Amino acid sequence: MFKNTISNLTRLKEVGEVLLKYGFEDVVTTTPLRRLVGASRRVSWQRAERTVFDTTRWERARLVIEELGPTFIKLAQALSNRADLLPEALIDEFEKLQSNVPPFDVAVARQIVADELGRPLEDVFSAFDDVPIGSASIGQVHRARLRTGEDVVVKIQRPGVQDKVRGDLALLHELVRLTGGFLRNHGLANPQDVVDAFERSISKELDYTAEARAMEQFRKLYADYTNFYIPRPYRELSTAKVLVIEYVDGCKITDKAQLEAWGLSPAAVAETGMDIYLTQIFEFGVFHADPHPGNVLVQPDGRLVLIDFGMVGKLTKQQKYAFAGVFIGMARQDARGMAASFRRLALTAEIPDMHAFESDLSLLIEDFALLDVKEMSMGDLADRLQTVIYDYKLQVPGAIFLILRALVILEGIGKVLHPSFNTFEFVRPYGARIMREQYSPENILNEAEYTGTQLLALLQTLPADVRQIVRKISKGELRVKVELSGYNTLLRKADQLVSRTILGLLCVAGLVFSGFTLVGHYAPTMRYYHGVAAITWWSLGTTAFFLLILLLLGTSRERKG
């Protein structure tokens, strides 16, 4: 544990120095990180032949991430899908990040496979290619052939990557603790939640059995499809660190020349791909979240193949209906309906001014309603929707941003293959189908059954809950906790009012008492000054003192105001 603490401190110092190197001195000097960086390490702002400030702040943020390594790059790549958290300019920079990691030694890869399978490599594979066909920050992929004759690909996790990621995650938690106030002041309301969500995501990615389960789920969903195929994972030969998958040949979906050489229509291929993807979203609610051209293959018979299921998104039935409602509201030019769908979609939607929100959506609808179908772009629409989400701080499910990103990627693929390809033409019938499904007798019956079950559960527990409340009231044990926000100013004003009222009453009382002393009868020993009894002078003096304090308090309040 002591070793880990020292390691984290060293790494924190390194992070601080990298931040300084790229001109983020404010992040260091306004947080506890400043204690970890000595004055001698405050490096110059000059970088190569230009100063750091010749680049934008967002470009420098990307440079910082690149220098801090693969875990931080993966976090930034994940954040590039969260337009509700980051401004568009920073997302554009994070989308440029690439995990260019060289492959590790094939001897080490072979040893990892043997250790994970618990037997020599030769007992499982008749051939194993030494040159990897792909390499990334988490692992690399080799082609191989099983003893039973099947061609496969073997995905092997990098040695020590789990310890490295765990160390970086601990560092991220510590960084958030040290810089949380700074991040919140600059618009990132819940930095700890972001790191927690990333930790859950990358933990799944480090467990290859999760990817194998996702592939099996997709194989079941699409078992009856003849135009779409998911490679088979060999669960019996796979572990958390090694994944063996059926090898499937084919060309990239964007290889138009090869498609035409096989006698396939590129336009038809693009339409099939979009239909399959929209089926994943709107029918099954589970979708492949990274459909870039390298992950979508086409076979000579026109069958599409999806590979790499490390990133899979999911929507609940209600989220599916709400997401479809956003597009339907836009198609109907119904800003109020679109706003209502957004509110149903959001996890928390505290919109202070619904009229302004509906007005912004109305402007968005007007801008796109005036466009010809050929001029409409999914990329432009995704940007506008994400801007609205960011501006109004709507916390929507992360899967929504994965869908928008995927639709933009698929539109790009479609336009390579199909000159008149338009994403909206494909989405529209799916939206209408979802609405019919939402209001179908079967779904209404299911919703009524669910509501009835919830109501029955409430009625069953209600008597016991009421008895418990009554029992606590009778014993005087019931406590009510009330939290008010913004009451400090009110309390200060009330305190000021009470203080001035008391002083005013003391002044009045002093004057009345002084009046009574003027007509009083005193013993011969009472002293008189200018014909007035000493007690009267003392009373007037005390009253004058209280009056002076009251005047001073009034003057100080006016100055502060």
UniProtKB/TrEMBL annotation:
Keywords: Membrane, Transmembrane, Transmembrane helix, Ubiquinone. Residues 96-340 form the ABC1 atypical kinase-like domain. Signal peptide: none annotated. InterPro entries: ABC1_dom, Kinase-like_dom_sf, UbiB_kinase. The chain crosses the membrane at residues 502-523, 535-553. The keyword Disulfide bond does not apply. Belongs to the protein kinase superfamily. ADCK protein kinase family. This is Ubiquinone biosynthesis protein.
